[in-house]
């Protein structure tokens, strides 16, 4: 009986040894490495797609908020641009807003906000589909197109907006006028809170820079995803060559 048990144990050990040898073959090691690489690629793609979607939603919210802020400022201006007030010190009527105030910088920023909000909104809606939400060629092209257009728009609009504000020889625009008169109590009564309008116009420029950085980050996520995928692909190929039977 002992001999029978010993023979059974021996046969069992042989089977286990053969099984371990089978599991440790070069082909199985390469397959195991490939599965690890595929999991790593899937995890990276998940991180990239989530990051990209978060950036797009944040960009949409900020550009929409900027559109609302600029729309409110322009509604205040166009609703009161022909108003006059009585200046008791000069004993004469004066216009609330300068007659030749420069509106182009604010309108350019408003146009950039409108275009960016529209494009980001379309891409957010498209992200409900896997072909855009996942790391696909179409999703990469769509993100690149929207982000490049948005980045160019915001940088150009922000530079024009700020350069005009820093030019002391230029006519008043919305930013320079509201900030120069933000403590004028008489104008506050005629227009509203000029201090609040000044903050809104300054926020508009800062927000344009922030959204431009977000769009640039969205572009970088594409290179991140492509680089990581190619890296894992290269590692898998090297691993397969190393474990290849000779």
Biggest sheet, open or closed, and with what strands and sense? 2 strands, antiparallel
Structural class: mainly alpha
> Could you report the average pLDDT, rounded to the nearest whole number?
76
How much of the sequence lies in strands comes to under 5%
Instruction: Tell me the overall shape.
Output: elongated
Number of helices: 8
| Unreliable residue runs | 233-246
Distance between the termini: 46 Å
Explain this structure to me?
This protein has 246 residues and is mainly α. Helix content is 80%, strand content 3%. The protein contains 8 helices and 2 strands; from the N terminus they run ααββαααααα. The protein has helices at residues 2-23, 26-80, 104-126, 130-133, 137-166, 174-180, 185-190, 194-242; strands at residues 84-87, 92-95. Strands 1-2 form a two-stranded antiparallel ribbon. Helix 5 runs antiparallel to helix 8 (194-242). The longest helix has 55 residues, at 26-80.
């Amino acid at each position: 009986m002992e001999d029978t048990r010993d023979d059974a144990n021996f046969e069992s050990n042989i089977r286990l040894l053969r099984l371990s040898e089978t599991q440790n073959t070069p082909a199985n090691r390469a397959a195991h490495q490939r599965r690890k690489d595929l999991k790593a690629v899937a995890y990276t793609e998940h991180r990239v797609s989530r990051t990209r979607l978060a950036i797009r939603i944040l960009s949409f919210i900020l550009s929409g908020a900027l559109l609302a802020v600029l729309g409110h400022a322009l509604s205040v201006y166009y609703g009161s641009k022909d108003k006059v007030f009585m200046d008791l010190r000069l004993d004469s009527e004066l216009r609330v807003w300068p007659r030749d105030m420069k509106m182009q910088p604010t309108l350019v920023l408003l146009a950039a906000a409108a275009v960016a909000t529209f494009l980001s909104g379309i891409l957010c809606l498209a992200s409900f589909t896997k072909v855009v939400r996942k790391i696909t060629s179409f999703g990469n092209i769509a993100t690149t197109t929207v982000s490049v257009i948005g980045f160019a728009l915001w940088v150009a609009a922000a530079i024009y907006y700020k350069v005009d504000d820093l030019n002391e020889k230029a006519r008043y625009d919305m930013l320079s006028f509201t900030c120069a008169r933000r403590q004028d109590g008489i104008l506050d009564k005629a227009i509203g809170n000029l201090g609040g309008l000044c903050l809104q116009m300054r926020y508009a420029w800062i927000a344009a820079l922030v959204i431009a950085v977000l769009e640039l980050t969205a572009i970088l996520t594409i290179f991140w995803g492509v680089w990581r995928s190619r890296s894992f692909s290269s590692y898998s190929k090297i691993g397969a060559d190393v474990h290849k039977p000779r």
